[in-house]
Amino acid sequence: xxxxxVVGAGVSGITTAYLxxxxxxxxxxxxxxxxxxxxxxxxxSPWAGANVLxxxxxxxxxxxxxxxxxxxxxATEVPEAGIHLLKSRVYRREKDIEKLxxxxxxxxxxxxxxxxxxxxxxxxxxxxxxxLPKGMASGCEFGSACINVMVYxxxxxxxxxxxxxxxxxxxxxxxxxxxxxxHAGGKADVVINTTGLSASKLGGVLDKKLVPVRGQLVVVxxxxxxxxxxxxxxxxxxxxxxxxxxxAGGGTILGGTYQKGSWESQPDPNIAMRIMRRAVxxxxxxxxxxxVEGLDIIRHGVGLRPYRESGVRIEKEKIGDTWVVHNYxxxxxxxxxxxxxxxxxxxxxxxxxxxSRL
Length: 358
Hints:
Number of strands: 15
Distance between the termini: 15 Å
Order of helices and strands: EHEHEHEEHEEEEEEEHEEEH
CATH superfamily of the largest domain: D-Amino Acid Oxidase, subunit A, domain 2
Number of domains: 2
Shape: globular
CATH architecture of the largest domain: 2-Layer Sandwich
CATH class of the largest domain: Alpha Beta
Radius of gyration: 20 Å
């Protein structure tokens, strides 16, 4: 029976473990420093919104295309997963339109004027001029989903446990150490590296292409009738505006920032004020027209997105005498690409195992 160790218990690690646990015979151990329920600046998954806003270009859209049907199914059929369907509006500002047309924008496919994802969502529509807020050149709307990560991650962990996956607290300084941490004893046949930003400091990997992208947000009790984002802000090039309401009373996320290279873990009160001001300007109904004073704050937060300069890394590699499959570097789209990426990681595991049986 194949012995597999997954390092990391964020959304990528747990999803990969879950898909592997559906295959008969796999013995799976997840080893992680941080587990669902923890809050730590090293652990990105609990800080995510998390919603579905396709960010890839069409060329790299496969992971998001394959994940959306599963997210939609869970939202529709599995209420205990903590996902609900919600309309999303994507606005392209007049100030950004030339830059968007030239392709000089951070979020790849999201703000394209003729986005590939119009075929992904069956209710996709371009917004008529009379539905656009002031200063917007154009925009679109589609039925998306928002995940309450505080519900979803424990649910996913429970699905793994039901299939026999064992979760262990632990830290590894070198990826090859993980091969000896299987709960079943013996050496693992394959180690899966889903350590996110920590892969930049992990022995045997030391990926210098990984960079933190600091995301600051405010979580409020106010309910948002729909989700929105726009292509830029007047405050700073690395500040964003987005609003999304988590399922099952998880609060509404107001964002945000996209500060590449910043490791700062503490919320900046000035940025927080700008985030809240932008949110109520774009969606006055959030506070029934009462402005920032009408926001009922639950908490302020900061997460570090695991951005990788050359894109997500999903590949196999032999490190010493240990086969390793990498699945990390998802930046801000880890949830909305989680099933597609995990499928590819599982495919690589199966390649290694079939080769070792020959």
